[in-house]
Amino acid sequence: MLRKQTVWLLTMLSLVVVLSVYYVTAPKDMNDNIAFTSHEDATKQKESNKDQADVAVEEMETTDGKVTSSTSSDDMFTALRMQIEDERSRLRDQLNAIVASANATAQQKSEAMDKIEKLQALAEKEATLETLIKSKGGYEDVLVRAEDDQVRVTIKAKEHSKKSANEVIHMVKSEIPEANDVAVEFQPAG
């Protein structure tokens, strides 16, 4: 058991180091080209038309009509992944400190362990969704960020449509049913 924990710890530490380097070198400017839907909208859409959903897809266009991005989408995906990992790593460290603390009550330790397990389950669901969306949609890259009842999906794709955004939203809802707000953002692939 100790060997598995050691390997896991070393793997996570090396991942944090690599992601930190990318985070420091990545540009800070991000685009906000997003398609939004809320739980209420999704319910109304399902009732009114099971095959199609009304999802707004917004794009930034230049004067020549081409969709552009001010940062490389690879850099953006890397920066976002690092930011998420950094935040979760800090939270995990805080929760582990509570569990290891001699001053914490049994209830506090139990709550901290529950939160750690929820963080791990959430990370696994995000990874599963990323793989599922990437394989089913044939996209170059996918980033899923879930927090509370909100899920934000960023997709690197050459083409996108309302139908593909709707399919992604349904995949998210099937994997994370407690998600009330789902946002799908398409980044142009280079």
Automatic annotation (TrEMBL):
Q: Which domain of life is it from?
A: Bacteria
Q: Where is the composition biased (Basic and acidic residues)?
A: 41-53
By its UniProt entry, which Pfam families does this protein fall under? SpoIIIAH (PF12685)
**What residues form the membrane-spanning segments?**
7-25
Keywords of the record: Membrane, Transmembrane, Transmembrane helix
* Region named Disordered: 41-72
Q: Which InterPro entries match?
A: SpoIIIAH, SpoIIIAH_sf
Q: What is this protein called?
A: Stage III sporulation protein AH
Record organism:
Parageobacillus caldoxylosilyticus NBRC 107762
